Amino acid sequence: MMEAVVVKDLSKVYDKDKTAVDAVSFSVEQGEIFGLIGPDGAGKTSIFRMLTTLLLPDGGSATVDGFDVVKDYKQIRSRVGYMPGKFSLYQDLTVEENLNFFAVIFNTTVQENYHLIKDIYMQLEPFKTRRAGKLSGGMKQKLALCCALIHKPSVLFLDEPTTGVDPVSRKEFWEMLKKLKAQNISIVVSTPYMDEANLCDHIALIQSGKILSVDSPANIVRSYPEDLYAIKAENMRSLLKALHQYNEVLDSYAFGEYAHVAFKDKHPDLSKIRTYLEQQGVNGTDLKKTEVTIEDSFIKLLKN
Amino acid sequence: MRTIRFLLQKEFRQIFRNRAILAMVIVMPVIQLLILPMAANYEVKNINIAIIDNDHSSYSQKLISKITSSGYFKLTGYNFSFKEAFRLIETDDADLILEIPRGFERNLVRENGQKIFIAVNAINGTKANLGGVYLTGIIKDFNGEVRLQLVPPAKFDRTLSIDIASSNWFNPFLDYHVFMVPGILAILVTMVGGFLAALNIVKEKEVGTIEQINVTPIKKHHFILGKLIPFWVLGNVVFTLGLIVAWLIYRIIPVGNIFLLYSFVSVYLLAVLGFGLLISTFCETQQQAMFIMFFFMMVFILMGGLFTSIDSMPDWAKAVSQFNPVSYLIEVMRMIILKGSGFKDILRQLGIIALFAVVFNGWAIFNYKKTS
């Protein structure tokens, strides 16, 4: 099966010395959801803009649907859908007008590919005469997705589609992506949210323009080398300080209301640790083994 | 074609939903045409004059009443010494001092001649210049009258003199409205067209919609045409409104062919819109576009021959004006509206403007890149 996107040593340097994307390589299989996971400023948007032919790469190569992003940009433009991170539809046109407009400039009609957007558009239908600028954040995202889909793209690029969207809408949005995947549309999505990583088939963890790891979320979690423990205490700060000073601890960091700890010993003596913490004056501890998450893997990769 | 039609539909929708643009296109030109020609008047009236009459004769009285009744001068001082009169100049209460010497009437009658003294405050150059000229004219006129009284007509033939009688063509009463209105209309058309075009593409950049447009297979020239045509139509609307105001308020009816006028403006609008689009392809924000456009507009307007005649500019400035599209429009507007010039007369200007249109638009299309 041909790959939807192949990226090889792709680089982008701004102002001669600011490397935004540093020799990035990955490939996206047809009909899968591929996630670019990384914090703000990691270079996700630059990669998207190069893949959608908006930005010329400074090194390396990339193909989308078999077409080169530099040479065959014309073919790419008519077969990808792009949803930029910033809402970029015409705010002074209505929902319907925006959709019609994008259908026309892709030389198609709304009717022709209505089946693709039907599920999403039905929720927008009651507001179709409302101007896009007056829609709620979640509605705007749905409209943008409709506009990006209207020409039946083979690859869909979604740059941080759920940033600034409420949790319910985010969940809905991912449901929609799953349905699109079922239509054999390849989807490349970027997100700063680690919880969304599990919803992708493959993810690339990216930081400062470099890819730290590319694999399926399950494999990334599985390759985490140590067992991970979660500890809770009344006083988080003194707990972290105590863990930090403890020479049996390999790594420790705050993780929500818990602290995640990895120990040097494969089978650590938990009672010994509890006693140590009590000696240090850390009271009310609750220590248990925990599941490794993508976020833990990411933190681990970042520290290496 | 279908793409262009939809692009146009979209642009017009956006324009009609933006009240500020509509106001800018319709209300602003009308108001400016109502106010500016009234204010921008070259005629110098109300020149303040201080007179020192040392003679107090009937002739000096006659001269003074002739000056004050001319309508140009306002007698703000009737003084007894130059020092006193000069104080008025210093306090800006007088622009001119006329000193009539003692024995003015006697010497005029007996010795056939007399000198009088005029001092002009030249801080306001135009006013000083025109005031001096007007006053000299009045005195000359007075001189003629006096001669007619004193010298028997039979002897008249003995002195040779050239008498100049002038008549003003195309604007017989030297009405400044007639002169200013076509020029101001030219500037309005330029401003509305240029600014709207310059700000429009930049707005798409600023809002981010251009990102979405750029990933589509839309052709560059389609996109640019979609921007050009709506503003071209708006420019013609402004021009028509201006002509209506000129006709209703100033009774200016184009002497020449109105279709020729519209043809020229149509080509001209293409050039100005192309210029606006070109600027917008260089800018990232509306603020940048606004300032750059403003800079060029100032140069275009001040060197366009509306306020100061291009003929009286230094050679380098004349050369610069060759590249100023506004100067051609002002020229042609005056030619067709006031003089009734025909197609052949404006052929040169039309050719140059058409060249501007091709260059600006071509450059804009070339410079608008969908990939950065």
UniProtKB/TrEMBL annotation, chain A:
Pfam families: ABC_tran (PF00005). The keyword Nucleotide-binding applies. The keyword Translocase does not apply. SMART domains: AAA (SM00382). Keywords: ATP-binding, Nodulation, Nucleotide-binding, Transport. Residues 5-233 form the ABC transporter domain. GO terms for molecular function: ATP binding. Belongs to the ABC transporter superfamily. This is ABC transporter ATP-binding protein. It comes from Mucilaginibacter aquariorum. The lineage of its organism: Bacteria, Pseudomonadati, Bacteroidota, Sphingobacteriia, Sphingobacteriales.
TrEMBL record, chain B:
The chain crosses the membrane at residues 20-40, 176-202, 229-253, 259-279, 291-310, 346-366. Pfam families: ABC2_membrane_3. Residues 136-371 form the ABC transmembrane type-2 domain. Its main location: membrane. It is a multi-pass membrane protein. Keywords: Cell membrane, Membrane, Transmembrane, Transmembrane helix, Transport. The keyword DNA-binding does not apply. The keyword Lipoprotein does not apply. It is found in: Cell membrane. InterPro entries: ABC-2_transporter_component (IPR051449), ABC2_TM (IPR013525), ABC2_TM_bact-type (IPR047817). Belongs to the ABC-2 integral membrane protein family. This is ABC transporter permease.
